[in-house]
Design goal:
By secondary structure, this protein is of the alpha/beta class. It has a single domain, classed as Metallo-beta-lactamase, Chain A (4-Layer Sandwich). It contains 9 helices and 12 strands. It has helices at residues 7-19, 62-68, 92-104, 137-152, 226-237, 251-255, 262-276, 288-298, 307-322; strands at 34-39, 42-47, 72-79, 82-86, 109-113, 132-136, 169-171, 175-179, 182-188, 197-201, 206-214, 243-248. It has a 7-stranded mixed sheet. It has a 5-stranded mixed sheet with strand order 8-9-10-11-12, with helices on one face. Strand 10 and strand 11 (206-214) form a beta hairpin. Helix 5 (226-237) packs antiparallel against helix 7 and helix 7 (262-276) runs antiparallel to helix 8. The protein is globular and about 55 Å long.
Length: 334
Amino acid sequence: MKPLLSSAPAALAFVLAAAFPLPVAAQDAAHAVRPMPINDHLVAFYQGRPDQAAVKPGPRQWPDLGAIFVGVATYAIHDGDTALVYDSFTDPVSAQWVRDWLVKAGVRRFILVNSHWHLDHIGGNVVYADSMRIATEATRAKLAMKREAIEAGTEEGPPEIRPLALPDLGVTSDTTMMVGKVRVLLRPIAIHSADGLVIELPDDQLLLAGDTLEDTATFVAEPESIPQQYRNLGAMRGWGFTKILPNHGNPAVIAAGGYGLGLIDATRAYIRALVEHSHDADFQKQPLESFVAGAIKHGDVSLWWPYRDAHANNLAVVAKAWKDKPVPAFEPAP
């Protein structure tokens, strides 16, 4: 196992980061892209997660609600002149900042991997229009179907993503590839969305989790499949990694090398409780804190303000999906 922190490459990366200007559209603190070296071949790029007091009142758009307020990370696995970039932020300006940073670090060849089809992960795909772009075959199909609406800004409302660069290679099963000397395992898994794709770095015992896991709580996009997601989370827990880097999480935890397996346990407990309490008379009034208090006490997640709105949305979609269905039996937690 390689060390999670490599002080010399990290120091060099931080020096480079300080010297690079921020993108024009990302000068305020909420939108500034911050590089976070994890080890000598992996760097996180983080954007958003402002304190609630710093957020001005006014209209919200999908990048605010789905990414900036909760915080969003992308990742680059790099060795020599090659980098695999995992997701492309919400917009081309931020994605170009990441690419420019990597070019200045010596990268000349890029591979883009999308974790799933949701807009905050594919907004900057066009920056890699000259590169190989990989996702699950399900993501390719979903984006092709929704391309017109996404480019028109009617899928989730404005801003539009125009042009949308679709993935040009779809995977349907576990796929191993090399980024220089770094072994990378692409693993399709239906958690959060049916088209999910996570990345395992077996030699680092590290998982890049996309949106399969979040801190404070997962956003429930497909409530009908929660029992399947619960089982898949249990299976994923046994793959052998010991550290987790999600796309939406606490930047301090990400910068320190990632979350432990407790993040999976917290997510399983949360989605299980949503379904098991979905028939409660006061279900849609139950606060986020009542669902995550144990995970917070254990240190698996932290309470972050915009997840109260995400939780309210989760309550609504779960109540609608499960109101006329019997509550299933869930297998015990590990």
